[in-house]
Amino acid sequence: MLRPSGEQFTIDGGGYSATVTESGGALRLLSYEGRDLIAGFGDDEQSSGGKGQVLAPWPNRIRDGRYEFGGKSYQLGLTEVARNNASHGLVRWSQWLPIDEAKDSITLATRLMAQSGYPWTLDLEVTYAIGPDGLTVTQSATNHADSPAPYAAGAHPYLTVGAGPVDEWTLTLPARTRLLSDERKLPTTSEATAGTAYDFTSAKPIGDVVLDHAFTDLDRGEDGRATVTIQGPDGSVALWVDEHHPWLMVYSADDQSPARGGLAVEPMTAPPDAYNSGTDLITLAPDERLEVTWGITALT
């Protein structure tokens, strides 16, 4: 019998170990010297709550699954039926197969075929590589259609620094703006984080704050990276994103089981419903390839 998440691929080096899955190209496990850095899922389970999955050709939600692009209207399948949204792209349950393997890295690939609601063919790859600074993830897309394609990328790791709930964990989130959303988790407006409960630009405990928001206006270092850090009873962990990621979705998993057991910090190249707003939506020309990078590092 196959595992629900398919074949398992493990890489390791420098004290780090990661396991990724055939289903969804998902990051199932990541540890450093035996300490879990993500809240993953068991080898006898499938991903729940998006844990570790690759999100493409859009992250988050599209209102009613409808959008216009290039003067034409499209209708996607509604994969979040309760809220009438198309959610988290088209490849989170696809088969991803290895095309390059080494002890400390693996590249998985899938071909997203043209289909109803998204009539473009994309080759998608994700590389997980372990080095001295932890795990680096590179996601790429190549448009093989004869017309430009709308595109955005994301990923869905849940960070952990010990037994939850997240309330006692200390969060540093270098974001100056957050999106407000409605009951369908679709954006309505934005506000500055300064002076609000959602200002984590300086480290502070998460407390009872419910986080389920997209954040932007990210402070970056000289290397162009924006870095989120969490500190808890088991130590600290950091997630960084490159300049292709102007957005981070942060989710305290209040409606998951166990509630508030991990903190999802989701790299996103565009915000929710970008196919309708156009905000940071990427247009991939025919034969164009795009690579974006993010990573996770254990801190002492």
Task: Give me some keywords for this one.
single chain, 300 residues, mainly beta, 9-stranded antiparallel β-sheet, 6-stranded antiparallel β-sheet, 1 helix, 47% strand, globular
Q: Residue share in helices?
A: under 10%
Number of helices: 1
Overall form: globular
What is the average of the pLDDT values?
97
Ranges with pLDDT <50 over ≥5 residues?
none
- Portion in beta strands: over 45%
Question: Structural class, from helix and strand content?
Answer: mainly beta
Q: Count of DSSP E strands? A: 27
Order of helices and strands: EEEEEEEEEEEEEEEEEEEEEEEEEHEE
Through-space gap between termini? 40 Å
Strand order of the biggest β-sheet: 10-11-12-13-27-23-22-17-20
**Tell me about the biggest sheet?**
9 strands, antiparallel
Cα radius of gyration in angstroms: 18 Å
Tell me about this structure:
By secondary structure, the protein is an all-beta fold. The protein is built from 1 helix and 27 strands. β7 and β8 form a beta hairpin. The protein is globular.
